[in-house]
Amino acid sequence: MRTEARLKRGLRLAALTGVLLISATAACSSPEERLARYTQSGQEFLAEGDLGKANVQFQNALKINEDHVPALLGVAEIAERKQDFDNLFGILQRVVRLDPSQVEARVDLGKLYLVGGDETAAMEAADAAIALDPENAEAIALKAAVLLRLDDMAGATELARKALAIDPATPEAVAVIAAERAKSGDEEAALAEVEKGLAADANIPVLHLLRLQLLAKMERTEDLLQAHREVIALYPDNVAYRQLFVKTLLDEKKYALAKAQLEEIARLRPRNADAVLDVVRIENRLNGAEAAKEIFRRYIESRPDDLELQFRFGGFLRQQGDLAGAEAVFKALAARKGDAAVTLRARNEIAALRLLQGEKEEARAIIDEILATDDRNTEALLKRASLKIDAGEHDDAILDLRTALEDQPDSAQAKALMAAAFERKGDIEYAKSQLAQAVADSGNDPTITNAYAKLLMRANNVVLAERTLVESLEKHPSDLENLKLLAAVRLMRQDWRGAEETAKRIEEASAEDPVVNRIRAAAYAGLKDYAGVIDALGEENVRKSLSGRPLATLVGAYVQSGRSEEAIGMLRSMIESNADNYEARILLARTLATLDRRDEAEATLKEALARAPERAEAIELLYRLMVAGGRLDEAGAMLDAAIAAAPDNIGARIYKADYLLAGGRKEEALAMYADILERRPGDLLASNNYASLLGELRDDPESRAKALKAAEVLKGSENPYFLDTLGWAQHRAGDHESAIENLEKALAGSTGFGEAHYHLGAAYLAIGETEKARAELQKAVEAGGQGAWIEEARRLLAQN
């Protein structure tokens, strides 16, 4: 639908004006005369672009006759120009119902149906309009557009050509022909069609937008910039066209030109704080924070009564880390007389600063003062709820949040905090539902989306996490945190190509971000494109030594591609540059071991252990090398020396316990696990092994209680061996129902786990479920294994 310079609509309105003039001479003071006068006045204001006054006049006319079609068409025109399509849809339906002969109204209604995805209704509207006026170019073009949507390219093109023969500037027809040409790969021809339409009528916005899209797709940058300038010259007061130009300029990194356009937008929107913020942000990018602050101050000086702008200034200073400057702004606003709402808002901002500074008690005092004045102040309630969640006062926080939501039911922040409170309480499903609503209410806000996606990932719903991130990034395409999280999700799903595509988007948003190469490397590793991994990470490693997973990925790529010597050379070079590079030594040892160069690997590990005796990686690898070589005594001596050098090295003690078990020294191993748990209470592996070993070696009530206490930390684990240990400890302590629940989970997550089948069978026997017990004991015997449990399983099976 055209909103400017519509020739046919202009003729339609001119004809209407003639009718009104005739009726005005016929009845000077009748309701009909006033109806005509109001409608004519509305049309005049509409022609001048004064939509507010035009609407008043049309509404006056409709008060006289609510079914007056000319006035309704005027209101429809206003809704169209304001892009209030919901209201426009209702008005057009009413017009068509009142006057079925309104061809243009049917066409416009059909376009709305098409935009809404209802091709059937759009086709019916087009056919009805064509039946009324077979030569109506817009009606024919509408039908062509519907056929295009239905993939009838030949029919769409034929009708579009027919519409253009009637009116060469029919925008929908031009769009159909251009789409057909572009789809066939001939973008030049598509552009020529659009240019032809603009030559017929240069004042059709949709054709200018089509031209911009084609030039961008064709990467004709200079032509694209010139086309933007031409559109702005035609519609200098249209902010939307300037915003499109700004986006292109930013894409092309023409920041100074973008700033000039943003300044013009701020001039055209004198009461819009966001427009000023856009200018400030680009000034910050061009000339730094101080220059940006100075620009902001100038805007404030020119608009002294714009309090919103002052609040935004305080927010900008806070974002820049100038907390003292931000506080000065907010204190000045709080000191204003006679405006309680401004004072409370400013006090809330000061409380937020205190929270940023870690001064929770002072923040709480300010919040309490605000709530003493206004006990339903939403911002203060949200801050108090946040503090209560941090303090573990989840139920009190929920009460505050419910109060806030009573007044602001669409508050995304309140729902996000509600989700946090319920997640802390353990109600993950309710937390997910609250965050899902918060995402919807916030318009896919990046921060809230990020929190929701992470919660979904913790709940192992990576598919929904990915969809949530994609939807948010459609609206906020340059949000780095969500782009990085999307890359992580795609790597988790082994969508290597998707991760690679996301890395490209991150690079476009932040070319220097090192995460780009790391994501690409992980994707290439998944694709077994080891040369790609080396290309992605090798150069970065030269600039700055890698560490962690990226370094391990690079070394793995060298090894997998048969270039182990290059990996060895790189790692030795890194060690020469930094003798304390423990990680490089570990990776070097692993690489040497894969080449069966065990002596070199062992020497490297001993050097690593000597430099960092408190770390466990070298101990583990040395221990395994020595055990594999049958050097058990040497392994034990190495562990004793490591423990003596670093008594708190839990890893060394765990391997010493393993060494003792391998030698059949179970009592000493039990004592070692007890020692580990004194040093690190709740260690999962030590707790599991201590409880399991205690159950094997002791059968008195005190030992059973100790085993159960140690195993309690294993609750909620997904490790079947941990669940088996927990279940057996619960059974031995007399809690057979809990034991059965955990043992069933253990077996659901494993196969051939004979000992767990025995444990479950024994638990079933304890509650009298003999048939179930026999089935489990039979499985235990069939699975086989070593230890006293297999004989006990046979004995119980024989007895039952």
Structural class: mainly alpha
Average pLDDT rating:
89
Total number of helices:
46
Number of strands: 0
Q: How far apart are the first and last residues' alpha carbons, in Å? A: 83 Å
Helical content class: over 70%
Tell me the Rg in angstroms: 37 Å
InterPro entries: CellSynth/LPSAsmb/PSIAsmb, TPR-like_helical_dom_sf, TPR_rpt
Keywords: Repeat, Signal, TPR repeat
Signal peptide: 1-26
Protein name: Pentatricopeptide repeat domain-containing protein (PPR motif)
Question: What this model shows, in words?
Answer:
Keywords: Repeat, Signal, TPR repeat. This is Pentatricopeptide repeat domain-containing protein (PPR motif). TPR repeats lie at residues 35-68, 103-136, 754-787. It holds the Pfam family TPR_16. The protein is mostly helical and 800 residues long. The radius of gyration is 37 Å and the shape is elongated.
Give short descriptive properties of this protein:
TPR-like_helical_dom_sf; mainly alpha; TPR_rpt; CellSynth/LPSAsmb/PSIAsmb; Pentatricopeptide repeat domain-containing protein (PPR motif); repeat; 800 residues
